[in-house]
Amino acid sequence: MPLSPHPLPDLRARLDELETAHLYRRRRVQDAPQQPQALINGRPMLSFCSNDYLGLANHPEVIAALQRGAARWGVGSGAAHLVSGHSAAHEALEETLAAFTGYPRALLFSTGYMANLGVIAALAGRGDRVCEDRLNHASLLDAALLARADLRRYPHADAPALARLLGDAATRLIATDGVFSMDGDLAPLPALTQIAHRAGAWLLIDDAHGLGVLGRGGRGSLDHFGLAPDASTILMGTLGKSFGTFGAFVAGSEDLIETLIQRARPYIYTTASPPALAEATCVSLGLVEREDWRRERLRALIARFRQGAAQLGLPLADSQTPIQPLLAGSAARALAWSQALEAQGILVSAIRPPTVPEGTARLRITFSAAHTEADIDRLLGALTRILADELSGGLFRPLERTGNAGHRL
Ligand SMILES: *Cc1c(COP(=O)(O)O)cnc(C)c1O
């Protein structure tokens, strides 16, 4: 008699299926700090796949602040914020973030994923209607599922479709990315804020990719559209992207923040992030606000890339942000492009389903203020060679001959 009447699922067979469908994911091991000059398995590579848009992750002043913070506070926070882990460094960063975003208060979370889970599950319960953009970040979608809300997804950036959706039932909350993480385009925030006000619904804006990059002093997507913070609009921002550190925050009204402190489970039941990290983020936030040249430099690099790519006839998306996807279509083609770039010493990740919808696999190219014009030109040169190769039928052949195993990283 076998011990278990139910055999465990055959994990290997499922992994093999992913491999066959060009959907298997592998990690690259970095040997250098986050910067355009990556070192992968000892090999120097030029990287275009970081969210360190302003080049602050490896900034000497931010590193020094983290070191000073560790000397002052030690490493671990020791407990959750509601127990004994909430330090004066956390408190000061929350006040600074509130002032920066123009909201009455801000609350730190350990990660953006947790912040989104926390806000949505605190405001919407079982059966409450939550409307989300179809291309929202996974954490916003997961949050509505976790809350057991009645999740409805509207077509991407389609405000009239959202308005129609709100017409047929009371809606508790609308959630959208400010800048869409895989497309680089912006949510129609002026229309969304109006629709939310009219419906008496909360609007949650996840500005992971807008903060630091858009708006005056990097204040983000709302400021980009000239919209002021208000009591029904909630802002979620991450600190691991433009700010170059780690963690996240939610900004909103006094009552909203107090509600999250009482009810957001991913806030309550987790250890506070290290206080030294809060010290480092305070310093990086100062650089984000003061150093407009970083945003100007980014804009110039983006313009240079888009102009060059348009001349080459590359399948550019409608994005003015540092996220510049090149649509490949099939997962196999996106992977082949990424591998061909890698062969030329350039790192760009292929983004495949389920991260993006079926048939829209792409290269996700991202720029940083730490890139140079020569870096952009090198990328354009490599893409030119890949396109020429593809036209002559040469790009897919090595893949077919050797199978995927030969292309493992
Ligand atoms: C990165 C990201 C998150 C998650 O933030 P983490 O701090 O990395 O957990 C949430 N939303 C969007 C749109 C993101 O890009």
Automatic annotation (TrEMBL):
What's the EC number here?
A: 2.3.1.47
Q: Which residues bind pyridoxal 5'-phosphate?
A: 112-113, 181, 209, 238
GO MF annotation terms: 8-amino-7-oxononanoate synthase activity; pyridoxal phosphate binding
Q: Where does substrate bind?
A: 25, 137, 355
| Keyword S-adenosyl-L-methionine annotated | no
Arranged from A to Z, the UniProt key words for this protein are: Biotin biosynthesis, Pyridoxal phosphate, Transferase
The enzyme's first-digit EC class, named in words, is: transferase
Q: Which residues form the Aminotransferase class I/classII large domain?
A: 44-383
The pathway where this protein functions is: Cofactor biosynthesis; biotin biosynthesis
Q: Which coenzyme or cofactor does it need?
A: pyridoxal 5'-phosphate
Task: Please give the catalytic activity noted in the UniProt record.
Answer: 6-carboxyhexanoyl-[ACP] + L-alanine + H(+) = (8S)-8-amino-7-oxononanoate + holo-[ACP] + CO2
Show the Pfam families listed in the entry: Aminotran_1_2 (PF00155)
Q: Which residues carry this modification: N6-(pyridoxal phosphate)lysine?
A: 241
Biological process terms in GO annotation: biotin biosynthetic process
The record's section on InterPro entries has:
Aminotrans_II_pyridoxalP_BS, Aminotransferase_I/II_large, AON_synthase_class-II, AONS_Archaea/Proteobacteria, AONS_Proteobacteria, PyrdxlP-dep_Trfase, PyrdxlP-dep_Trfase_major, PyrdxlP-dep_Trfase_small
* Gene3D superfamilies linked: Aspartate Aminotransferase, domain 1, Type I PLP-dependent aspartate aminotransferase-like (Major domain)
Q: Which NCBIfam families match?
A: bioF
Q: How does it assemble?
A: Homodimer.
The entry sums up its family as follows:
Belongs to the class-II pyridoxal-phosphate-dependent aminotransferase family. BioF subfamily.
As for what it does, the entry says: Catalyzes the decarboxylative condensation of pimeloyl-[acyl-carrier protein] and L-alanine to produce 8-amino-7-oxononanoate (AON), [acyl-carrier protein], and carbon dioxide.
Q: What is this protein called?
A: 8-amino-7-oxononanoate synthase
**Which species does this protein come from?**
Thiobaca trueperi
